[in-house]
Design goal:
Layout lengths: L3 E2 L11 E8 H10 L13 E9 L9 H9 L12 H11 L4 E2 L1
Parallel strand pairs: 1-4
Antiparallel strand pairs: 2-3
Length: 104
């Protein structure tokens, strides 16, 4: 449900920016609990945890992949955040990601 180029099949350039996605400790614990697990770092004193590092060439946040928007709308028990799907943002994501792909 996500398009990507295998890392060895292209010659990517170095990203200009990194978009660091953080979740609060509270959100991390809510999501892991909803999935029937526990935060392995629960005993550590932290406020925020890094959940994603996105390399990119623009100085603003890119839209999420459509599948990420859908999973978030499914709820915490499915690995999402429980944020309702917004049709306009979803359609913008489909438009953007139909032109671009990740390198994995």
């Amino acid at each position: 449900m996500t398009r990507f180029f295998p890392a060895g099949t292209i010659n990517p350039q170095t990203a200009e920016y990194l978009d660091i996605i953080l979740y609060s400790k509270e959100q991390i614990q809510k999501e892991t609990a909803a999935m029937g697990s526990t935060d392995p770092n629960a005993e550590i004193d932290y406020d925020w945890g890094i959940v994603s590092v996105k390399p990119q060439d623009v100085d603003h946040e890119l839209t999420m992949n459509p599948i990420t928007i859908m999973r978030n709308a499914l709820g915490k028990e499915h690995g999402g955040s429980g944020v309702p799907l917004e049709r306009e943002k979803y359609l913008q994501a489909v438009e953007f990601w139909s032109k671009y792909a990740l390198v994995k």
